[in-house]
Specification:
Nucleotidyltransferase, domain 5, single chain, mainly alpha, two-stranded parallel ribbon
Amino acid sequence: MLPEGFYHESLNDSKQLSEKLRESLRPKLEADSISFGVAHVHEREIDEINILNASLLAMHKALDALSSTPKFILVDGNRFKPYKDIPHKCFVKGDSKYMSIAAASVLAKTYRDAYMAKIHQEFPMYNWLRNKGYPTKEHRDAIRQYGLTKYHRKSFRQLPEQLTLEFG
């Protein structure tokens, strides 16, 4: 939740910003916000309820973490489950249209990156520092060599299927 009229010239969709800029924005956004909440849904729960429901659950948990109640919820994307009796509206690519959604995307990405750095300490062979959401070739090779960790979603196909041509 940002104060009315909040503007920061560098704030945009987190995917459009460098890691260094996202990291420099995080403390400013945290300090300048009226309130913010960040939530994490663990791999096991994602596997149980699927990634879409886990995303919606994380949004609700983040809203639960706010110190004040929003009057209206702006949602990045095209799906949302109503939260309490607070009106909401979904915006595709909302993080490039609204400062509050862009700020939320920066906080979500920086907290996620910090989590990936933490699990990298435990399993460096997977290079979680480079594999932040989208599996790299290096990460897939590590899965082939070492198998899955407790941090991998088991319901997500980690390795592409090998296709073969049948001649005959």
